[in-house]
Design goal:
By secondary structure, the chain is mainly beta. It contains four helices and 14 strands. It is globular.
Length: about 220
């Protein structure tokens, strides 16, 4: 898809590959109202990166759950957050032990997320059931997912209850990434991470391309 941007004194074309078919963007389409709720957006105008959050209960039993609402909550302070149902084991464990790990999988590992979401266990959802390997964290009790590209170990900083949901804020106390992800120029690094983007139920996407917008004027 070719996107034409006009700047003072010049015009530029950027080529973005969407589905392998070059397309020119024409005049803006008519705007129509859409529902307010996230689950009713088809398609969703906001994309969410798919992550795997690990927690433990007071007995030390580990649980893994796919979460797609993780975001950076503050830039200068290492704070991230995500939404969770109050009924989910993830929140029960975090409320009890105040720790969790956000594991960032690549597109291939992310395929396991759908199986996790459909699997119900009365005690804990064991990542080994989905071909994943638990690895010791450095500063918190919940394990990392060895196959993930990056890991953010967190301690509960605060939370906000919103109806039957809760938004969880976590202070990042340890961050780790595959050494291979740090090698080479930025374009190669992001291609190595190969993140998965949640679109809606049973639909997800990969990183179609990485583009350098330049320094601008």
């Amino acid at each position: 898809m070719a996107v034409r941007s006009t700047f003072p004194g010049r015009q530029t074309d950027r080529i973005v590959d969407l589905g392998g078919r070059p397309t020119k963007i024409g005049a803006p389409s008519e705007k129509v109202s859409i529902p307010l709720g996230r689950k009713e957006w088809h398609p969703s105008p906001l994309l969410e990166q798919l992550t795997l959050v690990t927690t433990v209960d007071r007995e030390g039993r580990a649980n893994i759950a796919p979460k797609a609402s993780v975001c950076v909550a503050a830039v200068k302070t290492p704070l991230i957050g995500f939404a969770c149902s109050k009924k989910h084991r993830t929140w029960a464990n975090i409320e009890a032990t105040r720790e969790f790990v956000v594991n960032v999988p690549d597109l291939h590992v992310a395929e396991s997320a759908w199986k996790m979401a459909e699997h119900k266990d009365p005690v804990a959802r064991d990542m080994r059931m989905f071909g994943l390997t638990p690895a010791a964290s450095l500063k918190v009790r919940p394990p990392r997912v060895e196959e993930a590209r990056a890991h953010l170990e967190c301690r509960l900083e605060s939370f906000k209850e919103i109806g039957n949901e809760v938004f969880i804020f976590g202070e990042v106390v340890e961050a780790a990434m595959d050494r291979a992800a740090l090698a080479g120029p930025p374009l190669r690094q992001y291609r190595y991470l190969h993140p998965a983007v949640f679109l809606e139920k049973h639909l997800y996407a990969g990183l179609g391309g990485v583009y350098d917008a330049g320094d601008g004027d």
